[in-house]
Amino acid sequence: MGLTCNIDRKGRASRAIAGGAAIALAAGLAVLVWTSDLGVWGWAMVAGLALLGAFGLFEAAYGWCAVRAMGFKTKV
Question: What number of other Cβ atoms are within 10 A of residue 43's Cβ?
Fold first, then answer.
């Protein structure tokens, strides 16, 4: 089962922007966690946000949307 392109250029651009923003926020949060005492939960939030951003960039690169692949309609 391969990934079939199911989003257009506008959808790819929005996912790339959102993915890049999530990774940038994860980097900023990592600095905050590093300098404070948020512990393992802080690092878990950093990892989750980074993974979410990486998945958004993956969707943008392949032109594939997981939500659309499940049959839901999206605006973009």
Answer: 14
Domain boundaries, the chain: 18-64
Per-residue pLDDT tens over the stretch 62-76: 999 999 889 898 887
For residue 29, the one-letter residue type is L
pTM above 0.85? yes
What is the secondary structure of the chain as a DSSP string?
Answer: --------HHHHHHHHHHHHHHHHHHHHHHHHHHHTT-HHHHHHHHHHHHHHHHHHHHHHHHT--HHHHTT-----
- Is residue 60 within 8 A of residue 10, CB to CB? The reply is no
Give the pLDDT confidence of 17-42 residue by residue, as tens digits: 999 999 999 999 999 999 998 889 99
